[in-house]
Amino acid sequence: MSQTSIKPALITKVIPESIAAEIGFESGDAIAAINGQQPRDLIDYQYICADEYLEIEVIDAKGKTHYIEIEKDYDQDLGLEFSTALFDGLIQCNNRCPFCFIDQQPPGKRDTLYFKDDDYRLSFLYGSYLTLTNITQREWKRIEQMRLSPLYVSVHATEPELRSRLLKNSRAGKILEQIRWFQERRLQIHAQVVVCPGINDGISLERTLLDLAKFHSGEIPAVASVAVVPVGLTRFRPVEDELIPVTTAKAEEVIDQVQEIQAKVRYTSGTNCIWLADEWFLIGRRELPPASEYEDYPQIGNGVGSIRHFISQFEAYVKEFLELNICLSTQRKLTWVVGNAVEKAFVAIANQLNQIEGLEVNMIPLSSSYWGQDITVTGLLTGQDLLEGLQGRDLGEGILLPSVMLKQGDNLFLDDMTLEDLSVQLETNIWPVAGVEELVLTAVGDRAGFQKEIAN
């Protein structure tokens, strides 16, 4: 585990009209202690702040220390955002998984792209996956005492030797013992299995899924859900690795195998806990399952049902929109860029957008030459891919760009090209859009006006 000493929590944003705003907190201030305690991370901060009386030690941007007393409702948020969720440093990963995306990137990009974390706190706060191999006894105790559940765990295989081989870590074979630890304490995990053809597929995959399904029982199942995900490979991966890409035939094989296991689990428990990522159906050229198959979408953040959910939301929203019989005051032509993996699934969406009178949206699906992928999900498209795929085309008034291509809270693509640079080189407007409503309202060009009309 690689951690540094606890640093003051640097404030990057003060929410308007919040307690912190009323008191006079400013961006650039830092919290050194609350009620005499130094918070290690956002979890500590939230726990300590769940009190009616707070005495906060604050260091302002000039380095001067202030002491502030606050009385509030015990569950009332102060209204502060910080530069990081971890004030004592990142728990780094010491595994050497051959399929790790961090190791499949070119050198020379921004430092944050190469951070390999295995931090249970980021798993609890944001749903990132960890392996449980880098947790000390002290941290296990904290997970239990603070009831940090659910966590998101990369399992990959339950056979001890196979999991140790996949993670290249001798401690990795304890996974079933660790899941029992969660079960005994009525804590939960969401599991992930990245399938590597020829390594953990076939009989090994069946064993892994059936082992995990055994923990999906009781009022609080230790394994809340399992996502089965295809390995993703790029042209930058180490040449000596043993991995091979998932073919259409392999995707079809895995879909058939997992669906058979799903049926067994449903028969014995009355519910499902095993889910196939959307990519299997895209690679295997199969129809996506209906929305009803995904229950409450427990692994949507891992690409399980996200396309079906988006389509369902879009259909409901656009139906309401079209019922208003809105006609754009001027003709509007736009380009909507997506990864070619979703081309077939999103054709109907583009067609529905074009039912809005006065609007023409041209969907352009792209693959990634940057990563060396023939089939590419939208979130992996880079600025270079867009430049190569769109240069010289009629883009209309501009591009509707799914914001999943960009660094969260920033305008950087995965190849470090900025949104502004791409816009200049393509000589067009680019509008990042997140979600169904933003896509439609940006396309029609009057977010505020149409939002108000729909609300009424």
Mind explaining what this structure looks like?
The chain has 15 helices and 14 strands. The protein is of the alpha/beta class and 456 residues long. It has three domains: 74 residues, Pdz3 Domain (Roll), CATH 2.30.42; 204 residues, Alpha-Beta Horseshoe (pyruvate-formate lyase- activating enzyme), CATH 3.80.30; 135 residues, no CATH class. The strands form three sheets. The protein has a five-stranded antiparallel beta sheet with strand order 4-3-2-1-5. Strands 6-7-8-9-10 form a five-stranded parallel beta sheet. Strand 13, helix 13 and strand 14 form a beta-alpha-beta unit. Helix 10 packs parallel to helix 11, helix 10 crosses helix 14 and helix 14 packs across helix 15. It is globular, with a radius of gyration of 24 Å.
Brief sketch in words of this structure:
This protein is an alpha/beta fold.
Summarize the topology:
Blueprint: E1 9-14, H1 19-23, E2 30-34, H2 42-49, E3 53-59, E4 65-71, E5 80-82, H3 120-126, E6 129-130, H4 137-146, E7 151-154, H5 160-167, H6 175-184, E8 189-195, H7 202-213, E9 223-230, H8 248-269, E10 274-276, H9 278-283, H10 306-322, E11 327-339, H11 343-353, E12 357-366, H12 383-390, E13 398-402, H13 419-426, E14 429-433, H14 435-444, H15 447-455
Parallel strand pairs: 6-7, 7-8, 8-9, 9-10, 11-12, 11-13, 13-14
Antiparallel strand pairs: 1-2, 1-5, 2-3, 3-4
